[in-house]
Amino acid sequence: MTITHHLDRSTVHREWNNALPPRLTIDPGDTVIFDTRDAADGYYAPSSTHADVLARGPFRGHPLTGPVSIKGARRGDVLTIEILDVKPAAAFGWTAIRPGRGLLPEADFSKPHLTIWDLSNGTHARMGRNIAVPIAPFPGVMGVALDEPGSHSTMPPRKNGGNMDVKQLTAGTTLFLPAWVDGALFSVGDAHAAQGDGEVCVTAVEMMGQVTLRFGLASGREQKEPQFRTRGPLASATERGPCFATTAHGPDLFASAQQAIRYMIDHLATERGLSREEAYILCSVAVDLKISEIVDAPNWIVSAFLPESIFT
Amino acid sequence: MTITHHLDRSTVHREWNNALPPRLTIDPGDTVIFDTRDAADGYYAPSSTHADVLARGPFRGHPLTGPVSIKGARRGDVLTIEILDVKPAAAFGWTAIRPGRGLLPEADFSKPHLTIWDLSNGTHARMGRNIAVPIAPFPGVMGVALDEPGSHSTMPPRKNGGNMDVKQLTAGTTLFLPAWVDGALFSVGDAHAAQGDGEVCVTAVEMMGQVTLRFGLASGREQKEPQFRTRGPLASATERGPCFATTAHGPDLFASAQQAIRYMIDHLATERGLSREEAYILCSVAVDLKISEIVDAPNWIVSAFLPESIFT
């Protein structure tokens, strides 16, 4: 018998803490529909402005729906989490530049910026008239409780998954997530309508979401960090036409990623007429960072790929 | 009138040096067919063994076909290089592990290893009976002379392109390469039949090749490093089925790339029965490194993607 549970978004937690009591206890094989809040907890509206980014105050942790205890899960087991469905639960999404956060520092972007995306057609996130990024929704945060006691920030990803922001964790992918405590204590949140590999400005197309997951257990599988298997080819939504790519070389991958994104921002400003803020936001939402080579010492190459099919 | 030139592989150079005389001078709009030697200068044969890797002695620089001087090219111009065709010029390719080189150090791989790939069917590089990597040939090295005088190693990529090892530079892609000296002095070599983003063991499926390029000139385009535009979707050959992916998190992208590849080698050994050397070589040839997120301080995530359609 297939059992489907439902957790609404009325209650959230904002930390990883293995002392949190489960909101729900399920059997392996069960499915759970999670209603998730967006990363800013519903703060933004379609009418929000750039000034609202700072007015919001400091980040207090991702609001997460959970935890769910999985019966029989023991430390050392691996959860197999089938991502059955991820969908927007609002007709808009948002992307914010917050000075001091993100890949490019304040010297590049000193002012806050907010873009509201129209998600109402169900297939694309639209910015203005000419940019439509295909929706490929996934939860930015999927994680389990850590084995260390106490409260842990939701910001960095860790061995428990968490704020992974891995854009391939879309419907059809199966996530393999090691359990660190009995019951695992799984939570989810921070759904994104679209994101590039890198999420360079620190936000994607952030949205209220609904995430449907089926949980299984694999014992005796040695695994120290999250792994996953996709159902089919990657990025099929954006892999429809030419890509424009910038490259940057050097001994430091982080600096090269910064430089490749700076070149892409220059390109988007010069060739596509975007403001630098719009360009940075588009990089975060639609540009993929690849490590092209990491062996031709002393210079590695990081490349940034822009799918040009997003321009309509 | 379209003019097509041909440069054979009888003569090569093994350094970047703006004092090298051009083998050929062409007009913008001309096409050149380059016969290229493989990175080991024809040293390996289908009968070669692991011992041959060290017997070969130290690397003396990539053998490059060129230079070609492009009339009218001035420092500050950008060459537009249309990659019209890249094909194998031999029925086999090779991949070598050389201790002390590559992403994983001697502690992981202390012995040399050589894999000979069968390229004879023209569409796939075959390793044994069960692995067939689709051929997506590209030149590992495309570059122009530097503005600094003297001899410069071909190993690291630089602002002049060079040993970029960017796997998306396949037929159909247009490379935009800044010129640093008058005439540009372009050379090409080091063709690869297939490679993963990262080229982690330091060699791809190395091969003798034939590369056909059409040269153009763009003036007044500010560009400091190579950029390019693909003709269509990326990696269409391998994007045919599920991918298995490992992730590694941490504050250092290089260390996370190493760890993600170690996990992938474990996976290939455990789940697919490969030796660790075969697994490392397969990672270099077919696994793509992505920067999944680079903003969730202090932990970035590097992911390694294996297209499972290569297993037959």
Short description:
Two copies of one chain form a homodimer. With 312 residues, the first copy, chain A, is mainly beta. Chain A contains three helices and 18 strands.
Structure description:
- 2 copies of one chain form a homodimer.
- Chain A has 312 residues and is mainly beta.
- The first copy, chain A, folds into 2 domains: 4-224, Jelly Rolls (Sandwich), CATH 2.60.120.580; 237-310, Endonuclease I-creI, CATH 3.10.28.20.
- Chain A has a 6-stranded mixed beta sheet with strand order 1-3-14-5-12-15, with no helix packed on it.
- Chain A is built from 3 helices and 18 strands.
- At the A-B interface, strand 15, strand 16, helix 2, strand 17 and strand 18 of A face strand 15, strand 16, helix 2, strand 17 and strand 18 of B.
Q: Using CB atoms under 8 Å apart, which protein chain pair has the greatest interface?
A: A-B, 69 and 69 residues
CATH class of the largest domain in chain A: Mainly Beta
- Detail the poorly predicted runs of chain A: none
Strands of the widest sheet of chain A, in order across it, are 1-3-14-5-12-15
In round numbers, the mean pLDDT of chain A is 96
- What coarse outline of chain A follows from CA principal-axis ratios? globular
**Secondary-structure element string of chain A:** EEEHEEEEEEEEEEEEEHHEE
CATH superfamily of the largest domain in chain A: Acetamidase/Formamidase-like domains
Q: How many strands in all of chain A? A: 18
Q: What is CATH's topology name of the largest domain in chain A? A: Jelly Rolls
Q: Evaluate the radius of gyration of chain A.
A: 19 Å
Corresponding CATH architecture of the largest domain in chain A? Sandwich
Task: Measure the end-to-end span of chain A.
Answer: 46 Å
Q: Give a short account of the largest sheet of chain A.
A: 6 strands, mixed
Whole-number tally of structural domains of chain A = 2
**Portion of residues within helices of chain A:** 10-25%
Bin the strand percentage of chain A: 25-35%
Oligomeric state of the chains in view: homodimer
- Given the helix and strand composition of chain A, which structural class is it? mainly beta
What is the overall number of helices of chain A? 3
